[in-house]
TrEMBL record:
It comes from Microlunatus phosphovorus (strain ATCC 700054 / DSM 10555 / JCM 9379 / NBRC 101784 / NCIMB 13414 / VKM Ac-1990 / NM-1). GO terms for molecular function: allantoinase activity. Coiled coil: none annotated. Pfam families: Amidohydro_1. It comes from the Bacteria. Residues 8-205 form the Amidohydrolase-related domain. One of its GO terms (biological process) is purine nucleobase catabolic process. GO terms for cellular component: cytoplasm. This is Amidohydrolase-related domain-containing protein.
């Protein structure tokens, strides 16, 4: 991919980076002035291969979850700015497609359902590593906005749309997959105690979701080739 960027001058973004060994390639490309960005996911920063239970295909994803040493390398990439964003890569897989009943990793759909748990899971691991919230938040806010070319987003500043989240960084909760608001109740963090609770979400200054009332309003519209 980097060779392609060198040959064409095109910008490239590495999705779902799981292998910490690849970070040196990204660092070298950036040092050479190439327009390369990279993201990783909460499951690569918080889950370890040797902790995956037998017959638990809710942990199956592509690329796969690796060991703790690899995870340490990914966190180094988070802290030194090589990784621009942390994204959920949320999987739409149903429980049946995951083969949760028979635990068949070979037939199971590869993907992690992690949108609702992404921030809390990553923040829980960050705290265990002595990493502050101010170091983590840019990878969920300004980092993704910058990658997408939406520099006005992810900031609390005059003129920016008031897309805000009220987050309680000290409150803990236990993940119950059946109570998550994902359409498909399956999670590799089921039964884990996580730290950090989203209390309210605002879109353009209007509350659209709260932990007590749930969904308050739906805004936006479906984007498709036809509507554009």
């Amino acid at each position: 991919m980097i060779a392609g960027v060198e040959a064409t001058g095109a910008r490239a973004h590495v999705v779902h980076l799981a292998d910490a060994g690849s970070l040196e390639l990204v660092r070298a490309a950036r040092s050479a002035g190439l327009p390369v960005t990279a993201e990783t996911c909460p499951h690569y920063l918080t889950l370890a291969a040797d902790e995956v239970p037998d017959g638990a295909p809710e942990f199956k994803c592509c690329p796969p979850i690796r060991d703790r040493a690899n995870q340490d390398g990914l966190w180094a990439g988070v802290l030194d700015g090589t990784i621009d964003a942390i994204v959920s890569d949320h999987s739409p897989s149903t429980v049946e497609q995951k083969h949760r009943a028979d635990g068949d990793f070979g037939l199971s759909w590869g993907g992690i359902a992690g949108l609702q748990t992404a921030l809390a899971a990553t923040w829980t691991e960050a705290q265990a590593r002595g990493i502050g919230l101010e170091q983590l938040l840019p990878l969920f806010t300004t980092g993704p906005a910058r990658v997408a070319g939406l520099d006005r987003l992810g900031r609390i500043t005059a003129g920016a749309p008031a897309h805000l989240v009220v987050f309680h960084p000290g409150e803990s909760w236990t993940v119950d997959a059946a109570r998550l608001q994902h359409r498909n109740p399956i999670s590799p963090w089921h039964g884990r105690r996580l730290i950090g609770v989203v209390e309210t979400t605002y879109l353009r200054g209007e509350p659209v979701w709260s932990a007590t009332a749930g969904l308050l309003s739906r805004q936006g519209r479906l984007l498709s080739a036809r509507s554009r």
